[in-house]
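Protocol step 4 of 5: obtain the predicted structure for the target chain.
Materials: sequence only (see below). No template structures provided, no constraints applied. The aim of this step is simply to have a reference model before the mutagenesis design in step 5. Sequence pasted as it appears in the construct record:
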Amino acid sequence: MNNLLSKEWIDISDYNWFLSDLDVINFADYEGKTLPIDFREEYFIPSNEDFKEIIESDIQIIWGVISAVDKNEKPIFDKANFPHVQGNDLIWENNNFQVENSIFEITAWDSSYTIVKFSNKVLSEKFKSYFEEAIELDKYKF
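Step 4 output (structure tokens):
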């Protein structure tokens, strides 16, 4: 996560974060450290300090949806159908955001794929220039 959300292309404090459907391996947990994530709930909206701690930790996200919204907004989502990964074919479609007002959304799929979608073109270009190996979702052949 720390590499994906590098300070080189993004300032995480510019956004409010929304985490849902998380399944993680927290390697720091073996050292007695716990992450500031409430796994008892369907979703979690961390403070910027907690999110910074999460992305800087020794964590592997197996499944999950991480959405960024403008820091002056609250995430808008369907409370009857929380953002999720497993069984959700819509994650493979461009311009389909599970949090309605997402500026960008990260989807971890079975720890095999990371899908990053942007509604902000400038941020998308910054991401693509930082991660030259990134490819457009519609060009990916599954």
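Step 4 remarks: The chain has a mean pLDDT of 90. The CA atoms of residues 20 and 41 lie 9 Å apart.
Proceed to step 5.
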